[in-house]
Amino acid sequence: MEKFLDDYGYVALLIGTFFEGETSILVASSLIYRGLFEMPFTIFVGFAGSFISDWLYYSIGRFNGKYFIERHPALQARMSPVQQFFVTHKYQILFTYRFLYGFRVIIPLVIGMSRIKPLQFLFYSIVSGLLWASVVSTVGYFLGRHLDIKTDVFEKNILYVIAGFAAFGILLGYMIKRFAFKKVAVENPVALPTDDHL
Hints:
Layout: H1 2-19, H2 21-29, H3 39-70, H4 73-88, H5 90-96, H6 106-113, H7 118-147, H8 151-156, H9 158-187
Helix pairs in contact: 1-2, 1-3, 2-3, 2-7, 2-9, 3-6, 3-7, 4-6
């Protein structure tokens, strides 16, 4: 496993953060203190995967959003409340959307369909993405150090470890989302989607 991580660790992290952010970056950063990953590269590669994902959906929203939504009926009923929510709390969302578990596909779509220009979104996606990657990597590092995760134990129990980090990532994202939306829910109670695949 160590050879695989030496050869393909950062590539796996890049792909993983493109599809599923917290789990991949938590797993990688938990092995930093073992010397299998390095903190600066883990943060940068984790950011890069999320950045590519964000720009993919932003571009879809900007250039073909209406058609894309029409091809995905499940999105249609969910777009209106999210768009309303974005208009009301635009800057808060632009700085924190990476932390909002369950919204990281639909929010870039909404941003792309808004009046936010590419250069503006570039700034916010860099700030939000780097902050997210730094925070999650730091959490993963201290978890790995505290739990003293070894590569042989990791390899023998890989499904349980990944499942545990996935559950922790979901819990972390849910807590942050709940905290961020607590005040908003009082001001503007809107039923928002929670499916991370949308």
